[in-house]
Design a protein that fits this description.
single chain; alpha/beta; Transcription Regulator spoIIAA; Anti-sigma_ant; STAS_dom; anti-sigma factor antagonist activity; STAS_dom_sf
């Protein structure tokens, strides 16, 4: 809840038309509803701007909520930053 606003701002600041945005969540230890809401907003915002959104998720604290909500199928989820950039 405390970091979600910062993530929202960062996504807005780095979503430029025609680019690729990689959100590295590999060190996130908790992903709750506020974080999931920001990810959904980020997905909508990047689609509008023509930006490819990629999410790096390796920790169960992130992968489990993504799977449980079905968002793992919505986002382009990768095991590493390198994989997210190269795909």
């Amino acid at each position: 809840m405390t970091t979600a606003p910062g993530l929202r701002t960062t996504v807005g600041d780095h979503s430029t038309s025609g680019s690729k945005l990689v959100l590295d969540l590999s060190r996130v230890t908790f992903l709750g509803s506020a974080g999931l809401a920001v990810l959904v907003e980020a997905s909508q915002q990047t689609k509008t701007r023509g930006v490819e959104l990629r999410v790096v998720a390796v920790e169960r604290a992130v992968t489990r909520p993504l799977e449980a909500t079905g968002l793992g199928d919505v986002f382009s989820v990768h095991p590493s930053v390198e994989s997210a950039i190269s795909s």
